[in-house]
Amino acid sequence: MTGREYYKFLMKRDLGYILQDETLVVRKFGFYREKYEQTGDEWIGDPLEGVSLLRLDIAMNGPGTREENDLLHRMGVSEEGCYGGVHQNLQNSQVNDDDFLYCVAHGNLPDLKNAMYTKSATNLEPYDACLRIVDEWRFYETLVNATYLDESGAPVQLHFTTFEDVRYADGPEDARSYSHDFLRKRTVFRNQSEARIMFWPVDRRQKVAGKTLKVNAKGIASCFEDVT
After folding, report:
1. Strand, coil or helix: 214
2. What is the three-class DSSP state of 74?
3. Measured CA distances, 197 to 104, 133, 151, 166 (Å)
4. What angle do CA 134, 138, 140 make, to 5 degrees?
5. Do residues 208 and 156 make contact, with C-beta atoms less than 8 angstroms apart?
6. Structure confidence by residue, pLDDT tens digits, 106-148
7. pLDDT one-digit tens code per residue, 84-105
8. What's the CA gap between 182 and 93, in Å, rounded?
């Protein structure tokens, strides 16, 4: 556990889902890309959610080394005709189509409220409520014992991480040293001070219907305190 205090910002109308129904909603990474396509707004929506910009910069004066050719193949680029070198930026998906995330904020609460309430005020989903996670360990325990249902109502078994801080950075990363990084977001989102949990199916062969999961987590309400 991190020992930090985490806050979930949301709309007052949605408080009952957590505090009465003991239900969380988690979304696929692709949900946030589609949200941007629908609204053009980079608050909840993000056209690069779960996607990294990679810089591929290889000087090749002849046939590439095995390491270079393996890198080209991973990036979907053929080494044929690349003897003059490869210099291009690529988009690379960092997550599986059926990976989900749950986002919270961390930091100084007055500063977070100022940023979150003010920034979202003109959004289609303005935040006007905030819950603090008062027991992080208990929160994870309820997720272990929760029931996860996709949009068709089918149950899904999931693995998940603990909360991890988002890493804010701009510009393409060196393709030679990239790693699958579900924590990377551009600096335009820095004032959200985000941490996130990632969920993924235990059975990767199972296709999860829709882009939203309902997490029925008995006892989850006791993990939160209303600090609106």
Report:
1. strand
2. helix
3. 9, 14, 20, 10
4. 110
5. yes
6. 999 999 999 999 988 887 788 999 999 999 999 999 999 999 9
7. 455 555 555 556 778 999 999 9
8. 9
